[in-house]
Structures are given as C-alpha cells and as structure tokens.
Amino acid sequence: MGRSNAALARRADFLAVLADPDLLQLMLVACPDAVIVASPEGRIALYTGASEALFGFAPIEVLGRRAGLLFPDREGWRSLQHALERDGYVRTFELAARRKDGPNLIAAVSAARVANRFGERLGTVYYIRDHSAVREIEDALRRNNAQLSTLVARLDHLARHDPLTRLLNRAAAYEAAENVLLAFPVGEARLGVAIFDLDRFKAINDSYGHLAGDAVLEAFGTILRQQARHGDVIARFGGEEFVAFLPGAGLEEAARFAERIREAVQLRHIPVDDTLAIAVTVSAGVSAIPDCAENLEEAVRLADERLYEAKRGGRNRVVADSCQQRNAA
Predict the structure, then answer these.
(1) Which residues contact 74 (CB under 8 A, 6 or more apart)?
(2) Residues 12, 10: Cα–Cα separation, whole Å
(3) 178, 240, 241, 259: which one is catalytic?
(4) What is the pTM of this model?
(5) Does the annotation count 263 as an active-site position?
C-alpha cells in the first residue's frame, strides 16, 4: 500500500511538472534533441531551441506551418506518417531533413501520437537527432569492411594458388579433392588421379635461364586448364610437378586425359622470346579410386610411382598399368 501511494505521489509530481509552463520550458530547453510538437492537423505548435539549432529556421518561420516542411523526402515522410497512424509511434526513423542554410542532413526521428484520456488526439511529438555523422561512420565502416573482405579474399586466393601458373597449390588441391570425395554417396566415390612431371626441366633452366623455365611452367599450366573439364581439380604440386584430380573418372578415362595432355605438350613449342621457342615433353602416372586405390593418399602414391616408371621407361609417356593383378594379390 505504501509503494502504491508513493507511485501515485511520483505521478502527481510528474503531472505537476507538465502543468508548470516554466518547468516544461526548462525541460525542453535542456533536451539535447530537437523537439517539435505538431497539432492534430500536422501544423507546428512548439519548436524548441535545439530544433532551431538543428534546422536553422527561426520559430517565426515555421510555427503554424506543416511539419512536413522540414522533411523534403516526401516518400520518407509519408512512410513515417503511415507508421504513426498504424502503431501510434516510431523509433529512430531515418529520412532527409532540411537545413535553412546548408545541405540536407540525415535525421533520426522518433515520434508519438498524444491523446487525452478520452482518446481525442492532441497532436504529435517529434524528437529529432542529426544522424549525418552516424551515417558517415556507418558508410565508412561499410567501405572499410568491403575493402577488408576484398583483401581477405585476395589473401585467401594467394594462400591457395600458385602465383606463377595461377593453379591451386598442393594443400588446396588435396582439400578440394577430399571435398569431391565427400560429396559422393558412401561407397560410390570415383576419382581419377594424374600426376605430371616436365621432362628434363633442370636442363631447360640451366640452358635458357629461369625466365625460360617460368615460361614453360606457365604454358603447361595453361594446357592443363584448357584440357580440364568443369569441376576437375588441377594444381601445381611443386617445382615442375602438377596434378589433376578428375571427379567421376575411372582409370581408363584418367589415362586418356593424361595422354591428351602429353600430346598437346609434345606438339607445342613454347615461345620464350621473339627468337626462341622451346620444345618440351611431359611424363605422367595415373591411378584411380576405386579402380586402384581405396583413398586419396593411396591413389596419389600409386600415381607418383607410375610417374617414375614413365621416367625410367624413357620419358614422354603415360603409365597407367591395370590394377587387376594387385587387387587379386
């Protein structure tokens, strides 16, 4: 009961403040936000000093005029009025506001309809803050975030790709291949693996220089990219060694892919400068899941062994022996 009486007393004190014009004026002057009160017809009936500081208009210039005069964004103003009619209030509604001597500002408007105890509308109270600086900060943050996202994406690309050939690097290729295998239903994974190594690449560097070697590497990367299907994973494993992971391909299909690459390299002379073009060849080893191996590590190891068989067999060839004998054992 004591708490109830205290609450009534506080309410009575508050109503007394509102009834005292001097105290009410003091509250309005002390309020840092612009405060405008509009009549039920929407005409400005009260315009505080903070409002004059914000908009630049003297009270005599706006009193009795429609509040929408201060908000040139007609569509935004209509939306605000529609929200007031629907809900009776709005919070931090952003729209353009007019300055008398200067560019428009971005205003954050909070407003509420005011009615007496009989439900008769007495008017609308608007609290307005300049959100231009806030918007500038938000825009700057968005720009910085966009730049940061671009930088992160670029760094991620650099971390995952070989800068010379623009193919995936070894770690990224393994990750992509594992993701391909995980996408297959359990027990149905099929992946061809072809590992390539440019023949006598050290001799190219020694004879023509490293710029010539880089040109050969770039050209081979381009050949791989041109021959690959959409969804194939091609990468530079390191040095002069490259790999192709071929989703859905069996051993024979992977071997045919490797052979097309070998033939394309053999037929092409790679220009180093206006007077020099180098003829190169490539060797390859091929395996496949599940034809030859049960997992990616085993498939890569087997393809690598076959690559060196191709090297020992005279280079410029593809080795993709049948695995039937190995599986039978």
Answers:
(1) 68
(2) 5
(3) 240
(4) 0.61
(5) no
